[in-house]
Amino acid sequence: MVELTPSLFDLQFNVAGLLKGPVGGLREYDVTVAAEELDRLDEAFHITVPLNGHVRFIRASNTILTHFRGTTSVLLECGRCLDPFEAVLELEFEEEFHPSIDIVTGRPLADVGDDAALVIDAHHILDLSEIMRQAIWLAMPLIPICRPDCAGLCPVCGANRNHESCTCELDEIDARWANLQRLISNW
Ligand SMILES: [Zn+2]
Ligand SMILES: [Zn+2]
Q1: Predicted TM-score of the model (pTM)
Q2: Tens of pLDDT along 26-55?
Q3: What spacing in Å lies between the alpha carbon of 174 and ligand 2's midpoint?
Q4: Which listed ligand is nearest to 151 at the C-alpha?
Q5: Of 103, 134, 140, 154, which has the fewest CB atoms closer than 10 Å, so is most exposed?
Q6: Which residues contact 40 (CB under 8 A, 6 or more apart)?
Q7: 117-120: which pairs have CB atoms within 8 A and are 24 or more residues apart?
């Protein structure tokens, strides 16, 4: 069974007024969602600070155009040294949401597109929860690195080179020098 993304109250917007208004109508809101609320969107999330952002809705002829921009932070594991670290995520998306009910007649609308996450419900609630979950995934680095100069783990002894030094690296260099020495002496 597919798990449904929970709907977060702070990411739900009633767009009835916008749908009743003229094409081109605009609504803008500041968006704040607590870290523990955002964590509910996906089991894999470890959000560390509240989401702060801004959303803009524009009434198009048959849809609501949505633009969101915001930031939050997640806890990730460094791909080099395996230490946990906090990564700032810049979130931005543009989506087109489809009403499921005709605001004037109250009748169901046939054309709601093919993405259930982009359907405005029968109570004219536009829910950004699933789209936000996807945006958070997309904003995460493919290979998380705690800092650009992370020294990583020693492949020989497993020591975290950011915190401790080991002699393995020196031995490797010594071995390379020895090879070079041999080359030179064979000349
Ligand atoms: Zn690292
Ligand atoms: Zn080592």
Answers
A1: 0.84
A2: 999 999 999 999 999 999 999 999 999 999
A3: 14
A4: 1
A5: 140
A6: 6, 8
A7: 117/5, 120/15, 120/19, 120/64
